[in-house]
Automatic annotation (TrEMBL):
This is LacI family transcriptional regulator. One of its GO terms (molecular function) is DNA-binding transcription factor activity. SUPFAM superfamilies: Periplasmic binding protein-like I. The keyword Transcription applies. Keywords: DNA-binding, Transcription, Transcription regulation. Pfam families: Peripla_BP_3. The keyword Transcription regulation applies. Residues 5-142 form the Transcriptional regulator LacI/GalR-like sensor domain.
Amino acid sequence: ETNMRYSAEARLQGVIDAAAAHPGIELTPLSIQRGLGESNAALNAVLNASPSITAFCFEDDEMAAPVLYRLRQYGRRVPQDISIIGFDDSTLSAAVGLTTLHQDPFAMGVAAGHMVLDAIAGKSIEPAFVRPDTPLILRETTAPPAATAASAQA
């Protein structure tokens, strides 16, 4: 048995920790089931419950990309009114200009392969989970919140 934490849980905890370190940031984690119907229902609920929301941070780019379209239906402009961030740096994210966190699946595979070979050779594979580098790739879907941008210009 390992003490490995799954990356999605670690991502969420990282966002929670970052928000807690910045007074004034209100974070509402949501669990959204996969599928267009569920994502649309969650988006509707969030926007109706909190019209002052300034950003969405998604578990992956696949969940973030459809929100760009849906926000336009609500009359929200990205990034002027609301920012969107994904995770994975998929081909889709580059095509739609989505700000995202980059993962290198090849490097992750190489590291996993080395761990497997070490395990086969009877070597220790601690730590069982290695957190990969995930640089932020800034594109067109993020900007300072409108209130912050307005006060910076004053």
